[in-house]
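Recall from the previous lesson that a structure prediction takes nothing but the amino acid sequence as input. Here we apply that procedure to FHA domain-containing protein from Actinocorallia aurantiaca. The sequence below is the only information supplied.
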Amino acid sequence: MEGPFIRIEDSGAVIPLRPDVTTVGRGKGVDIRLEDPSVSRLHAELVRRGPYVYVVDMGLSRNGTRVNGRPIARRVLEDGDVISFGSARGRLGGIPREEVDPEVELRRAVAPELTRREIDVLTALCRPALSDAAFVAPATAKDIATELVVTEAAVKQHLLRLYQKFRVPEGINRRTRLANEVIAMGLVRPLPTVTVPPQAQRTMPLPPEPRRPGIAARTPVTRRAS
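The prediction returns the following tokens.
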């Protein structure tokens, strides 16, 4: 079989990964459906980026996702890695090592383990840079705090740990360098754009006009029939 695939341990089924994202879970709409009560309806995603693959735990299951027995939130994979989705297991294959140049191999080797909260911070940090607008700076600590409904001090503590994990040295544009590193690794990706149908836009109520100070709102006057 050409290209990356996963072999499910219980059934022995060999399933090729999609070119972009392969969803894994117990629900009816996923790409790889696992009939195991420990697997959530949407449990994880297997994401392909160039010659390598990483797994993302969706955070919807108490049992989580593990790689080679180690709990993960997001992890770049190698050929032969065993991925556990709850109690269900599969082995990844079809990732040729010769197609990954030394620079990418080194970057993959140092990709840090991230907590779910750190992934939230990185996603909020990189969201402006993943938009369609050009030359957009990453989000500030205040912007991230507002989006995640936490204090700005807590966000700064997370950023300090992330700088250390991604080995971003002190200096100017530190947030930008962190965002560039994270995007280059493929650890975050843009969310799908939500579009509102034209019919729904027409039925949306208009906001009330602001009242001027000192002027009472007019009430409609009805005339009595003579």
